[in-house]
Amino acid sequence: MPLAPYASDPARTRGRRHAQPAAPTRSDYQRDRDRIVHSTAFRRLVYKTQVFLNHEGDLYRTRLTHSLEVAQLGRSIARTLGLDEDLVEAIALAHDLGHTPFGHAGQDALNDALREHGGFEHNLQSLRVVDALEQRYPDFDGLNLTFETREGILKHCSPSNARKLEAQEPGGVARRFIEGTQPSLEAQLTNLADEIAYNAHDIDDGVRSGLLSVEQMRAVPLFARFHDEALAEHPRLAGRRLLFEAIRRMLSQQMYDVMDATRARLERHAPQSADDVRRAAPLVCFSDAMRDESRQLKSFLMRHLYRHPQVMETTGRAKRVVHELVAAYLEQPAEMPADFAQRADLPRAVADYIAGMTDRFALREHARLTGAPAFEGLS
């Protein structure tokens, strides 16, 4: 399918921070995707928590499987809307590269522990990974991705950090947070695909864990509608097959809803270029009804899964691990590898080192430095 006029055309990219000749067989966005897949940070995602710690079960989502699911959903919607699928995929695969071990618990703890040193934002860290921390090329640090991929990776940014980035890169990826403009449609789409993916797979993982039941989930209108629809069509369906079918139908309907609602906004605003998109209101969206149902689902999961006593107990231990790692490395920098320990900005080096850890490496380091394993039975 040809690209729509409002899509991000790789032939019109705003380019890379370090000029490079074009690849002979790939577009710039395909090249971005390939660089991300081959990066060290991408491989680490397989051992980083989504909701359940990596050692709690082999079938729970990790940051890697989540990123793949976001890419699949995003590409499917992008194809229908005439957007650049490769750019969507690149953003999706890179959007969590800066996440700490232990999911949001690790991020919150690292931000709190380094509050006096600028704090920590995982979206900003994802950009930092692809701009500076990956070391794979002879002529520059980072992966040297295109502006459009970097723009999509930085989906949130505090005003203070946006101003710092703008000072370093005038007119760059942080400018929109200062001016209040929008990113590309591909970036907007990936952001919404992220939400669709984690709501669906957190239902699956929550029921698999035993912390949620299907009966509990039927209190959520969005889930109940497709659960009952699947059961009406397949009266003998039960167990995980019924759960999977309900989630599949819910995912499909959310995707169709995004397609229809976004088409309606595109017709109303009629952007003729990617730059028109940036000057418009947000264009990729749910319908009002689906947005309300999605919010109800998120609220339910917050109350019954993310704040479940068992999850909170694990979260508390994970936060303690991160706090104690920060304290240990600030006091004894030599416990880190030399390329971190010898940096002039020690707090940021500590943040980079801890954020790059997998769950199990962070736990091993914590046990080594404190002599007190945070989770028994994990090696």
TrEMBL record:
SUPFAM superfamilies: HD-domain/PDEase-like. Transmembrane segments: none annotated. It comes from the Bacteria. The keyword Hydrolase applies. PROSITE patterns: HD (PS51831). Keywords: Hydrolase. CDD domains: HDc (cd00077). Residues 1-32 are annotated as: Disordered. Residues 63-199 form the HD domain. Signal peptide: none annotated. The keyword Mitochondrion does not apply. InterPro entries: dGTPase, dGTPase-like, dNTPase_2, HD/PDEase_dom, HD_domain, PHydrolase_assoc_dom. Belongs to the dGTPase family. Type 2 subfamily. PANTHER family: DEOXYGUANOSINETRIPHOSPHATE TRIPHOSPHOHYDROLASE-LIKE PROTEIN (PTHR11373:SF43), DEOXYNUCLEOSIDE TRIPHOSPHATE TRIPHOSPHOHYDROLASE (PTHR11373). This is Deoxyguanosinetriphosphate triphosphohydrolase-like protein. It comes from Azohydromonas lata.
